[in-house]
């Protein structure tokens, strides 16, 4: 097979770009510790609101500067719909859906979870500034998807 010089150059360029992308991914994973959101914990969607940690969703202080928030997602809302956490707290969000796939995005932060029924999605963020944040469902989940939001107040 004969490959012309120009074709060979383009093959090297394509292969080079691929190698750069893979290197960036690897650096991100190894040096920055980036990993996909945890989906290791499972939960029966039909019991999300009736038993276990999501039956009484809310904010729990689990250390002097850290708290845990249990959020139940459902068509079309979040429980609690108004989350309040102290400023400077390292906050771990645990989110579970009782029906379909939802999103859990805290606008202007790096918290952006896909909430898949059967799994507990988790993300941690430290809030260093007081203010109000908007939490949106960013996965289309039905006719009321656009009404699915909550608010987060850092006080
Ligand atoms: Cu829930 Cu869109």
List keywords for this structure.
single chain, 155 residues, alpha+beta, 6-stranded mixed β-sheet, 5-stranded mixed β-sheet, 11 strands, 41% strand, binds dinuclear copper ion
In angstroms, what is the radius of gyration? 21 Å
Query: How much beta, percentage-wise?
Result: 35-45%
Span between N and C termini? 69 Å
What low-confidence regions span 5 or more consecutive residues with pLDDT below 50?
none
Shape: elongated
Ligand inventory reads: dinuclear copper ion
Helix content: 10-25%
Structural class: alpha+beta
**Biggest sheet statistics:** 6 strands, mixed
Mean pLDDT: 92
DSSP helix count? Answer: 1
Total beta-strand segments? 11
Q: Strand-and-helix sequence, N→C?
A: HEEEEEEEEEEE
